[in-house]
Amino acid sequence: MYRPALTLTINNARTALEAGLKAIGDGQTEFDLGDLTVVDSAAVATLLAWQRAAAAGGKSLVFRNLPASLQSLATLYGVTGLLHLAPAGESRAASSHH
Prior knowledge:
Radius of gyration: 12 Å
Helix content: 40-55%
Order of helices and strands: EHEEHEHH
Strand content: 5-15%
Largest sheet: 2 strands, parallel
Number of helices: 4
Shape: globular
Distance between the termini: 17 Å
Strand order of the largest sheet: 1-3
């Protein structure tokens, strides 16, 4: 299962984008972002690209454990509503039956 780790910035966004697209193509419908510690605006763009790719394939992609820094950037850019964020406290097991 693909899970971005530590950084998602302009320096590695293309690699992360490609790995995420492959995971979506393989059927993954949720990404846990809890390991991310360093992000920039490229992270927001990457999440939106993953979201578009999933939607194009008729799937819904859910993001879990969005770090506060990434949440702040998404809010700043006014795109929080475009991202499918798992509600805080929702257990992974409860949502895996979609």
